[in-house]
Specification:
The complex is a heterodimer.
Chain A (H helix, E strand, L loop, with lengths): L2 E14 L4 E14 L3 E6 L5 H9 L6 E8 L3 E4 L5 H10 L1 E4 L11 H11 L4 H14 L16 H13 L5 E5 L7 H16 L3 E5 L3 H5 L4 E6 L2 E2 L5 H12 L1
Parallel strand pairs in A: 3-8, 3-9, 6-7, 7-8
Antiparallel strand pairs in A: 1-2, 1-4, 4-5, 9-10
Chain B lengths: L8 E10 L25 E11 L4 E5 L6 H8 L7 E6 L14 H10 L1 E4 L3 H4 L6 H11 L5 H14 L16 H13 L5 E5 L7 H18 L2 E5 L3 H7 L2 E6 L2 E7 H6 L4 H8 L3
Parallel strand pairs in B: 3-7, 3-8, 5-6, 6-7
Antiparallel strand pairs in B: 1-2, 1-4, 8-9
Helix pairs in contact in B: 4-5, 4-6, 5-6
Classes of the chains: A alpha/beta, B alpha/beta.
Chain lengths: 248, 281
Amino acid sequence: MNSLLTIEHLSKTFTLYNLDQQIEAAADVSLHVNEGEFIGITGKSGSGKSTVLRCIYRTYLPQKGTIRYQSAAYGEVDLASAPDRVMIDLRKREIGYVSQFLNVMPRTTARELVTQALLEMGKDPQQAAGETERMLDHFELDSKLRDSYPATFSGGEKLRLNIARAMVKRPRLLLLDEPTASLDHASKVKVKTLIEQLMHEGTTMLGIFHDLEFMEGLCSRQYHMQDGRFHEGGTPEAAGRFLRDQKV
Amino acid sequence: MIQSEQPMISVQHLNKQFGPGCPQCMNPGSRKLYKNFCTVCHTVYSCQDVSFDLYPGEIIGVVGESGSGKSTMMRCLYFDQEATSGEVYLQAYKDGSRNLFAESTQQKRYIRNHLMGKVYQNPMLGLRMDFTSIGNIAEKMIAAGSRRVSEMETRGMELLEKVHIPIHRIKEAPKHFSGGMQQRVQIAKALSNRPPVLLLDEVTTGLDLSVQASVLDLIKALQRELGISIVLVSHDLGVVRMLADRTLVMLDGRVVEEGLTDQILEDPQEAYTQQLVHSLL
């Protein structure tokens, strides 16, 4: 199998100057993701899961380590040190990120929000409009809501829109930061269907989920994090063992 | 591919000082200043070695406290003030082969009239308050070589409509307008010569929220529909977050940090940037 993402010895420490504090959020994290895999990261809150995802997306700048990503357009890119412009382009075309929170553009309707994501990639407006409708249909977003502002949506509706926006691009690599945390069961099922569909189409995913049952059928492998490190050196087998113990 | 792309405007080692300088502050490497001020000869170093590239269709944000040199940088780029040293290259002018600062006054005027637009924080600087609004636009178009009244009228109406100035008020002078309307007339004026580069200096500061919203929506639409490259100076981190992909942080005339806007806001590296970001409500 071809590898898509290889993280080696990634460390992230936050230096807070005004409090004169250093916070080590991730230490010596190594991780390997093959093309088409769905990797789950588990761990308590505060264990550094999101930090790892954000370092991959460059919302955080890591101090040490490399994040080697095999891009379709650029070949191998180290996301820890790639130029900003390359990062912006990769975010538009190849790497998606879904968090628990929807960062909405004010005064942009739900439909526009999803369409814009496609237009950024260079799709033509007609095609973008069609794909937007299909995606919103899938998530059963009420047709009345599509032309209103997401700021007025309920938590679940916002989240579904958020996921729709990231998934409509069919990114090469999708980072999921607890996207299902506040969804009802029916919505979770929809997200799951879509994840399966995207996997089928070849999207590689790296996700954080608290919902172990949700992950169960999907994950190719799992990593477990504790205090900024991967449990037992991060072998997937160890994580699996750990999870089974937890459940009992 | 991004890597082969040429910057629309490339600013290299821009310096601007007010004052003659003295042995204590002449040498950039060993300069001893209180903030940007030399305590011996009272020279102010407003811009120190500022460099950045702006790419086609990109909005770059510039943030920093008052007096950090943001507006001085913008004034130098628009030739309102003469830079002390440095180079700037514009892709739309002779394929970016000439340093604009070294061009003749005549050429600088050409560049300003044909290839750039600027919106000032203070509409007094950007508009002739006693002319009509459409006359203000015509003024810029005449400077850019336009001579046909009908053409100027059509373009002026089209632009003023775009910035939501009611048609029945376009022959009124901006001095009768509210601050927000003046700002929008300024934007229309700056756009009249279809510039590839737009310099926006604190365009939304002092506007009420609803007007601010319509100005921001307008800027976003301009970038999206016309592909204009924009340098956006603002105090307001929310404005920068909404509009800019990349951001520069300035302090005491220097660029202390630059990066993706969300990275600057979520994971600021410098002490000053952290202080700035944590000041956000």
